[in-house]
Amino acid sequence: MTAERLDQPRDLRRTLRPHYDPEAFGRLSERIARFLGTARFIVYMTVVVAVWVLWNAVAPAELAFDPYPFIFLTLMLSLQASYAAPLILLAQNRQADRDRVQYEQDREAAERNQAEIEYLTREIAALRMALNEVATRDYLRSELQHLLEELRERP
């Protein structure tokens, strides 16, 4: 048995599983899910199904590839649905993860804002208390007026 050297990178392991980038796959699934939720997709699917049914119902027997009851069409629609549902769920999960992160950031910002508001409220209260102890210009003017009146009244 040979000892592994920690200063050397490991040899690449060959696996039978295909390698894929989960982030790229997630972005692709979101794009597909976004497209599946559009009116354009509904129109495209309606046109494809209508053309399929009309072709196989009206075309001569040798050109019809899926005669009534359109079993191959049913198989294709089921295959499309079996891929669409997991892609939509994956896109929803990714959106839920983004929403959770956004909610956490919003909550932290709200906490910071609340702390800042409380600090400013305390500062304003301290300023008001300090202003009550400071002689204002009007107060000084009225005191000087009283003194002046007292001096005038003395002989």
TrEMBL record:
Entry keywords, A to Z: Coiled coil, Membrane, Transmembrane, Transmembrane helix
InterPro entries assigned to the protein according to its UniProt record, in alphabetical order: DUF1003
Coiled coil (residue ranges): 93-130
Keyword Coiled coil: yes
Keyword Signal carried by entry: no
Pfam families: DUF1003
Membrane-traversing stretches: 41-58, 70-90
PANTHER family from the UniProt entry: INTEGRAL MEMBRANE PROTEIN-RELATED, MEMBRANE PROTEIN
Name of this protein: DUF1003 domain-containing protein
Organism: Nonomuraea rhodomycinica
